[in-house]
Amino acid sequence: MSATLKDIAEKAGVSVSTVSRILNLDDTLNVTDDTRNKVLEIADKLSYKTRVKVPKQIEIALIHWYTREMELEDDYYLAIRLGVENSAISNNIKLHKVFLDDFSKQLPNARGAIAIGKFDEKEIKLFQNKYEHLVFVDSSPDEELFDSVVIDFEESYRKAIKYLLDLGISDIGYIVGENIPRH
Length: 183
Known about the structure:
By secondary structure, this protein is of the alpha/beta class.
């Protein structure tokens, strides 16, 4: 018969929850080094086997509205994609990248999708039918149905202009980008 947390707790003179937190390496637990070492030694002597749960890696489709070549001409969308990829790496999320030229192939199986860009109704319906979770970045096709991440350009402009005016700068130029359809 293998040792239990209760066995270790009784021998160490601490609670079962304290033993559990020590064995699970909870660094927020406030116990002395002596107590921590005592629990670890008792667990070792009793040949306690921890059951470490390895979280399953989440898989998400990253759907881009451009081809690879088109993206190279647009630093804005390239930066968004790279930001999503870096965040995925940091959070142990596996991304399946899909570019516009991949749409003709089958979309990858994944728990959800992040769709970067401005998609037409047919594409949105395709994604909606394929993925349980769907987030749009840089567009908000239907605020009632989908989560989205968009920039509030008007508020950003107001803040930038106010900042410059507060600095005493009143000769302000404005460069406008053009939203070019991809098709």
